[in-house]
Amino acid sequence: MDGNGKTMLPGLIDAHGHVMGLGFQQLNVDLMGINTLEATLDTLKKYAEANPDLEWIQGRGWNQTLWAENEFPTAADIDKVVSDRPVWLSRVDGHAGWGNSMALRMAGVSKDTPDPQGGKIIRDGSGKATGVFIDAAQGYVES
């Protein structure tokens, strides 16, 4: 190709998949595209009932922007359907995680737990963690 003396760059497209993560997702509860909080919790409950031997329930794909409330969910929401073991659910984009009360207790998260650099713990009016952790704050539960 003759660029007539002008700079030419190839088209760069960053279409990619995290193949290992996609594989692991097949072992967890899939919450992709569910458009209500209630249906999300129902899917989680059915998965927990079908997998009674799992020590931790993990999943991915919740997206509160699809729900009428368009608000972050809470640990109390998960506790209504699974309270006997820890639950950790990654948001559709991986930039947030949602855990139940048992997962937060096991992680040692309290009112005094600071927001890490590059992350945020969503809190209620009294400063208590609600169950949603943004970006780097997910490390408190994931570690």
Textual characterization of the structure:
- The chain has 143 residues and is α/β, with parallel strands linked by helices.
- Helix content is 26%, strand content 20%.
- The chain has helices spanning 19-25, 37-50, 75-79, 101-107, 139-142, and strands at residues 29-30, 57-62, 87-91, 96-99, 119-123, 129-135.
- It has a six-stranded mixed β-sheet.
- A hairpin with a 5-residue loop joins strand 5 and strand 6.
- The protein starts with 18 loop residues before the first helix and ends with a helix.
β-strand percent reads 15-25%
Distance between the termini: 52 Å
- Average of the residue pLDDT scores: 92
The side-by-side strand order for the widest beta sheet comes to 1-2-3-4-6-5
Structural class designation: alpha/beta
Extract low-pLDDT stretches: none
Counting DSSP E segments of at least 2 residues, the number of strands comes to: 6
Number of helical elements: 5
Radius of gyration, Cα only, in angstroms?
Answer: 19 Å
Q: Percentage of helical residues?
A: 25-40%
Query: How are helices and strands ordered from N to C?
Result: HEHEHEEHEEH
Reported for the largest beta sheet, the result is: 6 strands, mixed
**General form:** globular
Record keyword descriptors for this entry.
26% helix, 20% strand, six-stranded mixed beta sheet, 5 helices, 143 residues, 6 strands, alpha/beta
Q: Could you write a compact summary of the structure shown?
A:
With 143 residues, this protein is an alpha/beta fold. It has 5 helices and 6 strands, in the order αβαβαββαββα. The radius of gyration is 19 Å and the shape is globular.
